[in-house]
Design brief:
Layout lengths: L6 H12 L2 E7 L3 H9 L17 E9 L2 H13 L4 E13 L2 E10 L2 H14 L8 E7 L1 H12 L4 E5 L3 E6 L9 E6 L14 E2 L1
């Protein structure tokens, strides 16, 4: 009897299928762009900057998802309804978070048309109405916010063309130094763009 006829194996597979996965949908800048941002962040401020492999622009956070296939299908449909978007990364900002501050780079459309497409894409992916496109640089104490903002404001702006979105699984505490570990589950392409093929890639 092979595994396909083994009730115990079927039960294990069914349990795995029911396991929820913590997912979000994001735009992930090219490796070279993320590396350039990291290179511009000084190490002498006592700030724990976001690592290059974790940098992304969140479109929608989905929380615990059991039916991953249905989510991928929905996001793929939403992505297919939008053309490639020009994204401008640059300009500093922050917001309060759990008694501290999140310092970020703006990551909005390069033109009014791009900004409209970005917001429509985010909405289609499930973004909240408070959607503010940004790339997180650090979570800091409020006493560190001013100096971190100064650093962020000095990062050279860059424009990139976005051709796909990334559906990402986040495993809290599983990455280096207790950070989250990101694994790309799927990369649906925007209209006219084929999504990246191949096995999931750890980010």
């Amino acid at each position: 009897m092979d595994d396909s006829e083994d009730p115990a194996a079927d039960a294990v597979e069914a349990a795995a299928d029911r396991r929820s996965r913590r997912l979000f949908t994001a735009l992930v800048p090219p490796v070279a762009v993320r590396a350039a941002v990291v290179a511009a962040l000084p190490g002498d401020l006592g700030v724990r900057w976001t690592r290059a492999e974790q940098m992304h622009v969140t479109l929608a956070f989905h929380g615990a998802v059991r039916d991953v296939g249905s989510l991928v299908e929905r996001i793929s449909t939403a992505a297919a309804g939008h053309p490639p978007i020009r994204l401008r990364i640059g300009g500093a900002g922050s917001f309060d978070h759990h008694g501290g501050s999140v310092v970020w780079l703006g990551a909005d459309g390069a033109t009014a048309a791009d900004r409209a497409e970005l917001r429509a894409l985010a909405e289609g992916c499930g973004a909240s109405r408070r959607f503010t496109p940004h790339l997180t640089l650090a979570r800091v104490r409020r006493s560190q916010a001013a100096s971190a903002l100064t650093v962020a404001a000095a990062v050279e702006p860059v424009e990139i063309a976005v051709h796909e979105v990334s559906i990402v699984e986040s495993l809290l505490g599983a990455g280096e130094g207790g950070r989250a570990l990101y694994t790309v589950v799927a990369r649906p392409g925007l209209s006219g763009c084929a999504g990246t093929e191949g096995p999931p890639r750890r980010e």
